[in-house]
Amino acid sequence: MQIAAEFITSVASASGLPRDGLSELAMVGRSNVGKSTLINALVRQKIARTSAEPGKTRLANFYRVRRGTSPPMYLVDLPGYGYARRASGTEVRGAAAIEFAKLTDAFFDQGRGGRNPDGTTGTKAIGVLLLVDSRHPGLESDLDAWAWLSSTGRPCRVVGTKADKLSRAEKVRHGRELESLFDGPVPLVSASTGEGMDELWTLIARLPKPTAG
Ligand code: GTP
Ligand code: MG
User: Fold this and answer.
1) Cross-strand bridge partners of residue 30
2) Is 33 in the pocket of ligand 1 (CB under 6 A)?
3) What are the pLDDT digits (tens) for 27-43?
């Protein structure tokens, strides 16, 4: 399957969010869980910057992606939550933390509309992938994020990352635990080995049509 992907924009605040009406799929999850790496694995290109240090992605980065004959969409790389320190050792608190929260809130704003390619104005169709580290099912911050995301009414699915780090037995055990915690199927994927990537594309294609809003 042919995949075309290009970086479109980096957004620091609500005013910069694209309003062109393309549907969006947002990567949400703890810092360092593998959001940017998963985008690269999905599109088979190194378009998103990754790092072993948490806190790499500071802005909302929009990538326009077209897979096969499907309509184009944005994959959106959002800043991660739940890390206490920057590489410099200073804590991300106060103004910086508030900026992150504001950006995420604006991103999920129910009322965010857009102009469609045909010139009509429409509402954004936003789906969400909540990425959790498959080695650590049930972290409080992930459960909190899930509860909050569910409350936004956006279609949301959970994906377990870094599956290459699990033994066969752990895959079964953690897989079951994740499915019971998040009340539905949780594919385990690895950007390193490519495991689960086709299943993930299938899941993306089958996300329920987001409700207008
Ligand atoms: P922030 O931008 O800080 O929110 O982090 P992120 O969620 O975008 O994480 P990123 O993609 O930068 O990856 C963090 C680290 O995890 C990097 O060192 C990656 O190489 C590593 N990583 C990501 N995916 C995988 C995976 O599937 N398997 C393994 N073994 N490592 C991975
Ligand atoms: Mg990142």
Assistant:
1) 81
2) yes
3) 999 989 999 999 999 99
**Segments of the chain with pLDDT less than 70:** 82-101, 110-124, 209-213
| Residue 190 alpha carbon, nearest atom of ligand 1 | 27
DSSP SS3 for 36: helix
Which residues fall within 8 angstroms of residue 53, CB to CB, at 6 or more apart? 32, 87
> Could you tell me how far CA 194 lies from the centroid of its own chain?
17
Report which protein residue has its CA nearest ligand 1's atom 23. 34
Q: Is the dihedral of CA 70, 150, 182, 58 positive or negative?
A: positive
CA of 34 to the centre of ligand 1 (A): 3
Give the pLDDT confidence of 62-91 residue by residue, as tens digits. 999 999 998 899 999 988 876 544 444 444
Whether pTM exceeds 0.85 = yes
Q: Contact, 154 vs 124, CB < 8 A?
A: no
Question: What is d(CA 9, CA 208) in angstroms, rounded to the nearest whole number?
Answer: 26
Q: Which atom of ligand 1 is nearest to the CA of 49?
A: 12
In ligand 1, which atom is closest to the CA atom of 39?
11
